[in-house]
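Quick illustration, no need to memorize.
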Amino acid sequence: MVATAERFERLEAAHGPAPQQWFRYDAFKHAYASGVVAVLFGDTVANGAGLFVELYELDICREREKDLINNREGRRLAGEVHAAGADGWRDRFAEELFVALKDGEPFSIRRGKDPRVVEACRSD
């Protein structure tokens, strides 16, 4: 099995570096993990696991909301990729996720610039 960081590095080598690499890797890490868990164990388990991690980490609201958006979008994309065919779905999911993150939408890359995050976290 390929670790998430190694998978991201391979995709960068194949597709070119992602702008704002650290922010994109963080989004990739959250979306990929949540997407894989959703396909393997269901959306409810993946959502609960993501909420648990965010509550455990005690991040500020904007960081937590950004991560939860990426988790949700990762679950959605993983479901679409898996539904298109179970063979090699993880590799296809990782590649489609990487390409989508280079564009940014609908993922949350920079918490301070995402209006969904700013709206949810007015107190930060």
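The two ends are 39 Å apart (CA to CA).
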